[in-house]
Amino acid sequence: xxxxxxxxxxxxxxxxxxxxxxxxxxxxxxxxxxxxxxxxxxxxxxxxxxxxxxxxxxxxxxxxxxxxxxxxxxxxxxxxxxxxxxxxxxxxxxxxxxxxxxxxxxxxxxxxxxxxxxxxxxxxxxxxxxxxxxxxxxxxxxxxxxxxxxxxxxxxxxxxxxxxxxxxxxxxx
Length: 173
Fold this sequence. Notes:
Blueprint: E1 12-22, E2 28-39, H1 48-54, E3 62-68, H2 69-73, E4 81-85, E5 99-103, E6 109-117, E7 121-125, E8 134-146, H3 149-154, E9 169-171
Antiparallel strand pairs: 1-2, 1-8, 2-9, 3-8, 4-7, 5-6, 6-7
């Protein structure tokens, strides 16, 4: 394999892991430890600014990309934060970090995250967790190779009967 075949460019299959850190507080917000695969130029699984920085990198490279969450997701919208009495919330959603898919009167859906809870009340937030934050994506490129035709068609890996192991991915406040 030549060195150029290991360089990220359109049509290359890429596997990476990453961590997102709040630039101000230095708290880790998200860690993806299992290899995340995609076909560069065919399936943007991360922010466009991150993909732009990955172009030209090689397997083994580690890069840091600062991102302003407001530019990607817009500013926080406090009208998307709701608090309700806990008895009005089904038992399976009574856990901080739980994602709840809700539908409005027009049939539009939005994912809400349970952010606070006590014995009486539960709060959900429909804002993206990166809204209003400046973050740093730290990415480690694990694999770069020519994508197969099937991977190009689907934009990512072809895995028969695969299941993502949620215990390997965590969201941290």
